[in-house]
Amino acid sequence: MPAFDPLTYRYASRRNVVYAQNAVACTSVPLGAQIGLDVMKSGGSAVDAAVAMAAAMPLLEPTGNGLGSNCFALVWIERDKRLYGLNASGVAPMALSAEKVRAMGYTEMPKAGWLPTMVPGAPAGWAELNRRFGTKSLAELFAPAISYAEERYPVPVNVARQWERDSRRIAKAMAENAVPHEYWWKSFIKPDGTPYRAGELFHFPDYAATLRSLAATDCESYYRGALMERIVAFSRATGGYFCEDDFRNYHPEWVEPITQDYRGYTVCEIPPNGHGITVLMALGILNGMTMPEKRESAEHYHKVMEAIKLAFADTRTYVADPRYMKTKVSELLDPAYLAARRALITDRALEPRASDPHCGGTIYLCTADREGNMVSFIQSNYTTFGAGVAVPVRENSGFSLPGT
After folding, report:
1. Which residue of 33, 253, 273, 282 lies most exposed, with the fewest beta carbons within 10 A?
2. How far is residue 291's CA from residue 304's CA, in Å, rounded to a whole number?
3. For 181-234, how does the pLDDT look when each residue is reduced to its tens digit (9 = 90+)?
4. CATH code at 275?
5. Are 29 and 60 in contact, with CB atoms under 8 Å apart?
6. What is the 3-state secondary structure (H, E, C) of the chain?
C-alpha cells in the first residue's frame, strides 16, 4: 500500500482532506453536498445552504431522516460574533403517556407504528432558520430537492445497504398491522417487493408536492393548515394519537449552547433534551486523565470508550425534557462530579463479544461561507426509516413520520 501524507490524511484511506477558500458543504450523500455548494455559489449563505440540504436529505437519504424528523442546529453568525442554538425536536402527542404505553404491555417503546412517533420538528426548524438568518426564499431553497424528487436520482451505495436491511424491519411491522405502513411501503419499496439497490433510480413526486406546499406557506401548512389536518385525520383512522393542538402548539426553540473546555478547545452542544451533553461529559471525564501519545493505542481507546460509556449511562438516567429534568445541566458538567465518574475507570475492560451493531437513523451536515458564517446540523429519525408510518396527505403529496 502506498504511503499516505499525514498532512492530507493520517489514516490509510482513499479519502483526503478537502480544502476550500470560499465555501464548504459536507454531508453523507454527495448530491446533498453539491446542493449546498450550488446555493452558496448562487449568492446564498451558509444558513441557506444548510436549509436546502436539510430539505433534500429526506429524499436523498430516507434511511437516516425524513420530513417527520427532529433537527438541531448550531449556527455561528460572523457579524454577531455569536453562536446560536436551535432545538427543533418534537414532542409526544398529548393523548399518549408513559403510563398508557406500559398499560399496553410494553416495557420499552416499540420501534415501528404510531407509538414512537412525535410531532415532527424539522420543517419548523427549516422555516425558523430561514426566517432569522436566511437570504433566499424557501421556494428557492427547496427547488433542488423538488427537482430530484420529480426527475429521479441514483441511490448511493451506503444508503442502499441500510435500505435493504431495515425494509425487513418494516415488513415485520406490516405483518402485525399493515394499515399505518401501506403508504410507506408503496413509496419506498419497488412494485416487485424489493428495496431500491445502489445505482437504481428513485423518485418521489409526492415529496416534491409536499415541499411546494411547505414553501408556499412558510411550513405553516404542516402545523396549522391542510397538511396538519390530513395527518391528524389519518392518525385517528389508523390507531394513532395525534390531535390538532399537538401541531398547533408546536414551536422550535432558540437555546443557549452549552460548552466544555477540552485541551485548548471549547466544544459546544445543544442543551437537553438533546443528547449533545453526552459528548461534553465524556470530554470532562477525559480532561483529568493522562492520555497516551499514541492515539491508536489500546490504552487510548480504552479510556475514551469508558468515558463515553459513563456519559451515556448518565444521559439515559438524567437527561429528559428540560421542563421535567430533576438534575441540572450544571450538575452533570460539574468538575467534581466528573472527577468522581473518572475515578470509576480502571484498567479492566469487558472481553470483546460478537454483536450486530445498531444501524442508526441520523444525518449530519455542515456548511461554511466566505463571510465566516457556519452551520452544524443534525436531522434524525432515531432509527433507520423511523417508525415506518407514512401519511398519504393527498393523491399527489405525502410525507413519512419517523419515530424520533
Report:
1. 253
2. 9
3. 888 889 999 999 999 999 999 999 999 999 999 999 999 999 999 999 999 999
4. 1.10.246.130
5. yes
6. CCCCCCCCCCCCCCCCCCCCCCCEEEECCHHHHHHHHHHHHCCCCHHHHHHHHHHHHHHHCCCCCCCCCEEEEEEEECCCCEEEEEEECCCCCCCCCHHHHHHCCCCCCCCCCCCCCCCCCHHHHHHHHHHHHCCCCHHHHHHHHHHHHHHCEECCHHHHHHHHHHHHHHHHHHHHCCHHHHHHHHHHECCCCCECCCCCEECCHHHHHHHHHHHHCCCHHHHHCHHHHHHHHHHHHCCCCCCHHHHHCCCCEEECCEEEEECCEEEEECCCCCCCHHHHHHHHHHHCCCCCCCCCCHHHHHHHHHHHHHHHHHHHHHCCCCCCCCCCHHHHCCHHHHHHHHCCCCCCCCCCCCCCCCCEEEEEEEEECCCCCEEEEEEEEEECCCCCEEEEEECCEEEEECCC
> For residue 167, what pLDDT band results from cuts at 50, 70 and 90?
confident
Q: What is the pLDDT of residues 153-166, one digit of tens each?
A: 999 998 998 898 88
- Return the C-alpha cell found at 137: 426564499
Is residue 354 in a domain? no
Based on the fold, state whether residues 383 and 241 are members of the same structural domain.
Answer: yes
Same domain, 222 and 248: yes
Residue 235 sits in the same domain as residue 108? yes
Q: How many domains does the chain have?
A: 2
Domain that holds residue 292: 256-342
Q: Residue 46 belongs to what H/E stretch?
A: helix 46-60
